[in-house]
Every structure is written in structure tokens, then in C-alpha cells.
From TrEMBL:
Keywords: Membrane, Transmembrane, Transmembrane helix
Lineage of source species: Bacteria, Bacillati, Cyanobacteriota, Cyanophyceae, Pleurocapsales
The UniProt record lists the keyword Transmembrane helix: yes
Name of this protein: Ycf51-like protein
Transmembrane segments: 12-32, 39-62
Alphabetical list of InterPro entries matching this protein: Uncharacterised_Ycf51
Pfam families: DUF2518
Source species, domain of life: Bacteria
């Protein structure tokens, strides 16, 4: 038996049960039954459970796994339309686009809003280079722009910074030779 993981299904069934209990409670009060206050408590409890399941369904994030993406960490997020994620300097060029797509899917939420009149959410991907001991230089490898209003955005604009990738490869070659 397959159990649904979509919380909206549970919210619907909990709401239906709450309404049925409400009708039975109203009937118990009209008929003056002795357990009417217990039914009122059960109905109130079910209303709280229904509201909680509904709120939980709004707050859970859907994390997608895109093949070829590597692990990233969020280093900046203004909560509106910009974010920066960091990856290891050992990233391969073929892993940049899938990692950007995964970050765009995972960081999307309905609460974001566009500033500057633009309805785009921009995520930049960066790594750190260490040209000398004690010195770190951020190097941006790419960015993705996606819609703020639609979770399913088929028109994401991906930009790969090839000159920075060349600089990363050069730094990797230097670290291997030394």
C-alpha cells in the first residue's frame, strides 16, 4: 500500500473529520446529550490538528536532486531576490550548471519578492581561491535567474563565467604542481 506524502491530502481528510465532528457536536448540543462537552473538546482538538497540518504543508520545502550537482552551502541570502552559494574549488565545469539548477529549485519559496521591479531571483555560485596563505579571493563561476512567481520555471537563465573557470583551472594546476 502506497501512503501519500503530500500533506494537502492529510489536511483534506483532517478537515473532513473535523466537520463531521462539528456536526455531531452541534447535534449533541441540540439533543442535550451528556457527552456533548467531550465532543466539543474533540472537535476543538481536531480543528487545531487540521490547522497544524495545513501550516506544516506550507512550510515544508521540496528538495530536488539534480544529477551531476554537488553539495553547496548558502553564504548569502537577502530573503528577496538574491542569494550566493559556495562550492569547493575542486568543482568540475560540468557540475556548475546542475548545481545552479539544484540551488534554484531548493532556494525557491513563495515568500520572496522582487526588488527593483524585476520578477527574477538571482543565485550566484562562487568558490574561494587561496593565492597565498592567509588570503582568500572569491571567484564567481556562474549565476542563474529564475522566476519569483512560479515554482516550475522552464525559462531559467543560466550564465557560466568561462573566464573565471579558466582562472580556477589555472589555480588548480598551480596547487597541483606545488
Amino acid at each position: 500500500m502506497k501512503i501519500p506524502t503530500d500533506l494537502s491530502t492529510y489536511t483534506q481528510w483532517s478537515g473532513i473529520l473535523t466537520l463531521v465532528l462539528l456536526l455531531i457536536t452541534i447535534l449533541a448540543f441540540i439533543l442535550g446529550l451528556g457527552f456533548r462537552f467531550r465532543l466539543f473538546g474533540a472537535t476543538s482538538f481536531m480543528a487545531v490538528v487540521t490547522a497544524s497540518i495545513f501550516a506544516l504543508s506550507l512550510g515544508l520545502f521540496v528538495h530536488t536532486e539534480i544529477p551531476g550537482a554537488i553539495r553547496y552551502s548558502l553564504v548569502y541570502d537577502n530573503g528577496a531576490n538574491q542569494a550566493v552559494v559556495a562550492v569547493s574549488p575542486e568543482i568540475e565545469e560540468s557540475q556548475i550548471e546542475p548545481t545552479l539548477r539544484q540551488a534554484a529549485n531548493n532556494l525557491y519559496s513563495f515568500g520572496r519578492n522582487g526588488r527593483d521591479g524585476e520578477n527574477k531571483f538571482t543565485i550566484k555560485l562562487r568558490t574561494l581561491l587561496h593565492p597565498e596563505p592567509g588570503i582568500s579571493v572569491p571567484l564567481y563561476l556562474g549565476q542563474i535567474k529564475r522566476s519569483l512567481s512560479s515554482r516550475e520555471d522552464d525559462n531559467m537563465q543560466i550564465e557560466i563565467f568561462t573566464q573565471n573557470i579558466a582562472q580556477l583551472k589555472e589555480a588548480q594546476a598551480k596547487s597541483v604542481s606545488s
